[in-house]
Write a structure and sequence with these properties.
Largest sheet: 2 strands, antiparallel
CATH topology of the largest domain: MetI-like fold
Number of strands: 2
Radius of gyration: 27 Å
Order of helices and strands: HHHEEHHHHHHHHHH
Strand content: under 5%
Length: about 325
């Protein structure tokens, strides 16, 4: 019996020939899936382009109005478009205040939950707690709004006094937004922590580190890029929250640093104004899109920062 030995050139050409034959074969199902994925990607991109176009077009109509100037828009502190005052800072400051309060609640609690789920919880406990977090994330935000108004505000008034804490205030709205954002922070941070190789944990334990030291000083720094991305996404989510602030924060554009008084955020103002009897092409109507454009730029900036942080602190493991 003779044995035919293939040359090295033939061995290298065989996979290429097989690949070319597979490419030439027409597979309708795979082609349909590819077209569907391309269409989905195109729709998402075109939706973003459409949003930017509509916001920019309507906001431009606001800024080209003779009654509005960029100097007044970014340099004054009174917002009442119906009577000719166009200072955006009361709305921006209330938005930042509620977001800051929310992050003081969500970031430490969410990261603590993530560390527990990733480093301490058993597989059975993790399988029980993660669905509960998802349930918390699935509660409608309007329910959170009335929870802030009817539960959190009375607690704050009983602690600090009814004469200090108003019925509508940014503190209760910010705390409840923080509770709302905890599942997002916990889920994304837990994914980042869980992706850290076990070899790092074993090396830390081998050097004598405790479980807490391993979690805080080894695993968390190794997952820093993912955790930072989770934090920034949570900030964007809190900044864009609408129903909680519309119900619990108040409906008065008010430049203040006191979290216990009423103040209106950008999203809350959009909801309040758009829900009324506004005529198309009025200054009030066009101001909604100017506020929306400012909010869009802020969240876009946060997303860009998130990408930079992820790229800067990304850890690559073999």
């Amino acid at each position: 019996m003779s044995v035919i030995m293939a040359s090295p050139e033939d061995a290298q050409a065989a996979p290429l020939a097989i690949g070319a034959a597979l490419r030439r074969r027409w597979r309708p199902a795979e082609a349909a899936i590819e077209v569907g994925m391309f269409a989905a990607a195109t729709v998402s991109i075109m939706t973003t382009v459409g949003i930017v176009y509509v916001l920019s077009r309507e906001a431009l109509l606001f800024f080209v109005d003779d009654r509005v100037s960029l100097i007044e828009f970014f340099g004054t502190t009174q917002w009442q478009p119906s009577i000719g005052f166009f200072g955006i800072w009361p709305l921006v400051s209330a938005t930042f205040m509620t977001t800051a309060i929310a992050m003081l609640v969500a970031l430490p609690l969410g990261l603590s939950v993530a560390i527990y789920l990733s480093e301490y919880a058993s597989a059975r406990m993790r399988g029980l707690l993660k669905p509960l977090l998802e349930v918390l994330a699935g509660v409608p935000t309007v329910v959170y709004g009335y929870f802030a108004l009817t539960f959190m505000t009375p607690i704050l008034r009983s602690i600090f006094g009814a004469d200090v804490v108003e019925i509508y205030n940014t503190a209760s709205a910010g705390i409840v937004i923080g509770i709302l954002v905890i599942p997002l922070v916990a889920s994304m941070s837990e994914d980042a922590l869980h992706a850290v190789p076990n070899s790092l944990r074993q090396a830390a334990v081998g050097l004598g580190a405790t479980k807490l030291e391993t979690s805080v000083k080894v695993v968390v720094p190794a997952a820093l890029s993912g955790i930072a991305a989770a934090f920034i996404v949570a900030i964007s989510r809190a900044m864009g929250e609408t129903m909680v602030v519309a119900i619990a924060a108040g409906a008065r554009p008010h430049l203040t640093a006191n979290p216990f008084v009423a103040a209106e955020t950008m999203t809350g103002h959009i909801v309040r104004i758009s829900g009324g009897d506004l005529s198309y092409a009025t200054i009030d109507y066009e101001s909604i899109f100017a506020i929306g454009l400012v909010l869009f730029v802020l969240t876009l900036g946060l997303n860009v920062i998130s990408g930079r942080i992820v790229a800067r602190f990304r850890e690559v493991y073999e």
